[in-house]
Structure formats: structure tokens, C-alpha cells
Amino acid sequence: MMRFLACRRSLLVWPLLVMATVTVGAASGDLDPSFASGGKYLSTLYGTSMFGPGVAVQPGGRIVVAGKNFNGNDDDFALLALTSAGAPELSAIVPFSNGKNEDAKSVLLMGDGRIVIGGEGNAGTYAQHGLVRFLANGALDATFGSGGKVSIDFGRLSHLHGIARQTDGKLVVIGDSYGGVNSGGRIAVAGLNVNGSLDTSFGTGGKVEASYGESSNGHAVVIGADGKITIGGYVENTNSGLASACYVARFTASGQVDTAFGSGGSTVATLGSGTTNYCHQLVMQTDGKVVIAGGTLRNSIGDFVMARYTTTGALDASFGSSGVVSTEFGGRLPSSSDEASAIALQPDGKLLLGGYTEGKFAVARYSSAGALDTTFGTGGKVSFAFGSGVDDKIKSIALQPDGRIVVAGYTRAGANYQLAIARLLNDAGGALSDADRLFNYAEAVLPSYFSAGTATTQQVSGYTARVYANGMAVAVKDGRVYVYGDVYGGLRDVGTLTSLFAQAVQAGY
Question: Under a CB-based contact definition with an 8 Å cutoff, are residues 232 and 212 in contact?
């Protein structure tokens, strides 16, 4: 049986816990107090740096972030891994060459624990698509490319923004390229073998280039269950430099245009009421529909925007307003700026957008039909200052196995930028935190003390706790588990969350 009764630890005092009825419980969208410092982690590992465009969460809860490190001379690829509690666990800095600026923008987790990050490498005379693969321990994977690094030359300056993995382990990467005779941007996609070499069966010699406007930017890629590749981004008016529309396009698994999608393989549309769009990330639902997210701008006023497309590339009329959802976050100041940079799909079909509003981190949650989910934050929206609130931006978003939300980006401190990571609480369509699963187990093995269904989980004086009508309570704080009640003589420490949670998992909780 669980160690709640067997423990002989010394008694402690638990102030305010019996007054939990007047304490406001934590809710979806609140900062998770069990993560780092009050739900926030600010990197101090890399000195003067801007960091954090890509984030992913490994099955065990370890948080992996990719970005760049400025060493006082140039920028290099950088990797950071945090424990589930928000403590630094692993870090690495990888230059492609000295004295040149390089920037990792995306991260992909391999099923065997290896990690791939990609972005703007600079191994030649101009920036190129660059990737680095790490072993689970943070060492470079020598079986990938040259000493763990791969550069892809499109014949002119290029930047990589997204990475996806095919079922056979091959990679598909997307970015854009600029310069040369045709100076406008073109979408630059490449297929790679498992060892990092170009997959010559993909596209033309392993590469695909395309354009859907005067200048096209490739930002996101997902691969469907049928192996087809969907990409997304935005097109620009090269005369003004402003984005004008978002696009989605589809290719076969071998990199050929899927002409059955949209109009000749793509759909380009101006989203929302603005005349300027920036779209950055997309997700694919289980039914094959895709949702793309970004910002819409009109008269210097910006809003979150997303659109859903059917499997044939048409805007989905059952989503939002004729397939499009726009969200205003804050007030309407001159040149007000709201923009989504990241999107995540919850297991229950709800959608999360992350970005910024008026210099602060911003997250919104929506139903599967595109309506703001009022059970999240305030009216479906959450915003908070990470640093001074002058220039805080979320660049990526991921879900932990327990449903909690991890967002990564940066905050500005004076002239410097620092990696900023926050974790938010989330019901995630029924996904439970480790504490909730432990509490449910306690209710099952000791029902006379902890009566199931009679208490809710809430934050009390720094504890995550359930307080029952009979005066009993069970709680977690700083990785330890506590019980409270007359039968225990007050508050008792009964062990680590890790060991007791393992018992709950073994019992099926």
C-alpha cells in the first residue's frame, strides 16, 4: 500500500491550508508555479544572446529548445535542454564556421532520443540551409552529414525554417532562398536521407523550389498519414517589402506537385480584414485538414489570424468565419501589434496560438470550430510580461505529455535578447498533471481519508493540493508529497513525487 500511513517523518506546520476555501484555484492558462521560477525560465547560460525560436518536449518531459547564441563576435547554433521542472540539463553551441552569423530556427525530436535542429548555417560564401543532429546526451552525431552537420546549397542565400520526418526516417526541410538573377524569395524545400545526404529521389536532385507570388517565404512543413507533404508561409510584395497573403501548398512524398490540392497544388489567400498577412506555422488535424497561423495587419493594427483548409485545399467554411479566425488581444493603440508565431493542436482537437501582444507573451485557445475557448485564461486569452514587457515574443509552442503548455521565445533586456521559456497549466481535454494522477491514486487506496470527487486541485500557499471536507488533504510541493490531517498529527512529508508517482503509474493512474 502507498506510504501515506507507513511514514515516520517529523511533523511540519502547514499554514493557511485549512483556509483553502478562500484561495483561488489554478486554472487553464495560469503560469505553472512548479516550473522554474513561478512558471518562467530566463536563460543566463549564453550571455549576450537571442534564443528560442524552436521548442519540443520529449516523452519523459524534457524540454528541448533550439536557437542562436551571440558570443560577442557572431551568432552560432545553440541547443538547450531543461528538465520537466525547468532546470538546465544540457547545452551545446555549434558553429558552422567562425566569424559568420548562424541561427537555428527549428527543432525535431527523433524517436530514439536524437535531436535535429535546423536554420541558417553559413559554411560557404553565403548563408545556407543548415542542420545539426545530436545524440541524446548532447554530443554531435557523427553518422549525420559531416561530423553531425549538414549544409544544403541552393545556389544563393537561404534560410531553413521547418523540419519534418517521414515514416522511413528521411527528413523534409523547408525554407526560402534569395539573390541572384531572380532576387525575389523562393520557397526552398529539400529531402534528406537518414544520414543527411540529399535524397536524389526527391524533387530534382533532392530539392524543390517554388514561388506563389512576387516573393515567397517557406516557413512550415507537415507530413500527412498518406505521406504527402504540406507546406505553408506567406508571399510578399517585393516593392514595399510587406507580406500580402498566406499560402498552403502540397507535394507528393517524392516532392512532386500535388495538382489535386487547391489551384494547381496551392492556395493563396489574404486572411482576415487586413491587407497584409504573415503566416508562420501550421498543424495537420487527424482528419487531414490543415490550420495555418500568423498575423493580419491593417492600418498598422495587427491581430492573431488562422485559417483551416480542407483536404482539397479550399478554405473550410465550417471553421470560424468562412474558414478564417481573427483575434484582437489588447487595446487599440497607434501601431498596435498582435501576431501569432506558433500553433499547437491538443489531443481533444482544440487549438493553441502563441505570439505576442503589445510587447508581451500571448497565448489563445480555441475550440475545434475556431471559437475562443472561454475556459482558458480570460475569455480564451492569456498575456503576460516576461521581462520588462517591451519586446517579449513567443516563437514556438509545444505540449507536454500531461497537457501542460510550453512556450519559448525571447525577451529584451536593454540592447540584449535572452531566451525566455514559460509553462502554463492546461486541462488539455482531460490530460492530467502528475499531481492529479497521484491524488486520484491516493483517493483510491485511502478512500476513508481522501474521498473521491469531493475536492478539486488548487494552489495553496505554494502547494498543489486537494483539501477535503473532513479536514484531510494531500499535496505536492518542490518535488515532495505531503498529507495533512489529525490522523497524521498535522502535516507529514511522505516522500518524493518521483517515487510515489511511479506507484500511481504502476497502478494505472
Answer: no
Residue 181 has a CB neighbour count (10 Å cut-off) of 5
Q: Show Cβ contacts of residue 140 under 8 Å, excluding neighbours closer than 6 positions.
A: 94, 132, 133, 134, 147, 148, 149
Please give the Cα distance from 99 to 71 (Å, whole number).
Answer: 10
> What is the full DSSP assignment across 152-193?
E--SSEEEEEEEEE-TTS-EEEEEEEE-SSS-S-EEEEEEE-
Report the distance separating Cα 383 and Cα 285, nearest Å.
26
CB atoms within 10 A of CB 461: 14
Backbone angles phi, psi at 441, to 5 degrees: -65, -40
Written as nine digits, the cell of 311 is 483536404
Sole residue written with cell 492546461: 426
For residues 14 and 508, the model is more confident at 508
Strand partners of residue 491: 12, 484
Please state the rounded mean pLDDT for residues 206-233. 94
Distance CA 265, CA 228 (A): 12
DSSP reduced 3-state for 411: strand
pLDDT per residue as tens digits for the range 385-427: 987 767 899 999 999 877 899 999 998 877 778 899 999 998 8
Helix (H, G, I), strand (E, B) or coil at 201: coil
179-186 long-range contacts (CB < 8 A, ≥24 apart) are 179/126, 180/155, 180/156, 183/238, 184/211, 184/214, 184/215, 184/216, 184/238, 185/211, 185/215, 185/216, 185/217, 185/236, 186/210, 186/211, 186/216
Cα 259 from Cα 266, distance rounded (Å): 8
pLDDT tens, residue by residue, 166-217:
999 999 999 999 876 556 789 999 999 999 999 999 999 999 999 998 889 9
> What is the Cα–Cα distance from 329 to 358, expressed in whole angstroms?
9
Chain segment 246-255, per-residue pLDDT in tens: 999 999 999 9
- Burial pattern 154-172, b for ≥16 Cβ within 10 A else e, equals bebbbbbbbbbbbeeebbb
List C-alpha distances in Å: 303 to 327, 356, 362, 405: 6, 10, 11, 22
pLDDT of amino acid 464? 84
